[in-house]
Amino acid sequence: MNAIIESRDLKLWYGDHQVLKSITMDIPEHEITALIGPSGCGKSTFLKTLNRMNDLVGNVRITGEVNYNGKNIYAPDVDVTKLRKDIGMVFQKPNPFPMSIYENVAYGPKTHGIRSKAKLDEIVEESLKASALWEEVKDRLKTSALGLSGGQQQRLCIARAISVQPSVILMDESTASLDPISTGKIEDLVMELKSQYTVIMVTHNMQQAVRISDYCAFFLLGELVEFGKTKEMFAKPQNKKTEEYITGRFG
Ligand SMILES: Nc1ncnc2c1ncn2[C@@H]1O[C@H](COP(=O)(O)OP(=O)(O)OP(=O)(O)O)[C@@H](O)[C@H]1O
């Protein structure tokens, strides 16, 4: 296993409240890693530490390291804009910008300096194809993204993440607000994406974790209780608490 991200003794406090307790974990490259655990155990917080989204929250203290391609992302010289380009994020609720479908996807590349119309057209088409949305929207690229269905909007948000050529995509319960058909489409899409990207996803849905993840991390009260291959963890959990959680006995 080649680790693209390594967290080392990572601890995080919101004020006096310690939410992550010494998380040490290697995230394998080109695999799907699911973060599971009961509500409030720190999954989203951990996910956000991986591209420094917690910098945007006041009153946060972080110790330890998160190494991305071998370099600590919390080092003082890190360019956070570049980091968030490399490690993109898709949120729980689809959050397209109130602009056209085309502009939603072109926005990131433009921000990173691409001006050529032909190049932008190409990126928009490729990103929408990669997010399995192109066929549905190719004739209405100039219409508002807000006119798309929730599932389409979420695939647009994935296209937006892909448009800046990240290496890692963080997904925070990105199918939680979708119907089963849209959820299935996103799951298929995520499985296709892993040939090119590393995906780390928070999910409350155990079936989803089993269906699509290669590795699984079980969090409880801010601790990483168990981490391993999903098939092995679900077939033979090493920890009693993991077993209780995945068999639905708590959480
Ligand atoms: N911005 C914040 N300020 C203060 N406390 C926060 C903040 N964000 C999260 N917390 C607290 O940190 C703890 C962990 O929250 P987090 O959202 O990481 O958990 P989670 O496992 O992702 O939960 P869920 O599955 O419900 O989304 C909770 O007690 C939460 O109240």
TrEMBL record:
GO terms for cellular component: membrane. CDD domains: ABC_PstB_phosphate_transporter (cd03260). GO terms for biological process: phosphate ion transmembrane transport. The keyword Hydrolase applies. Its EC number is 3.6.3.27. The keyword Glycoprotein does not apply. Residues 5-246 form the ABC transporter domain. One of its GO terms (molecular function) is phosphate transmembrane transporter activity. Pfam families: ABC_tran. Keywords: ATP-binding, Hydrolase, Nucleotide-binding, Transport. It is an enzyme of class 3 (hydrolase). NCBIfam families: 3a0107s01c2. This is Phosphate ABC transporter, ATP-binding protein.
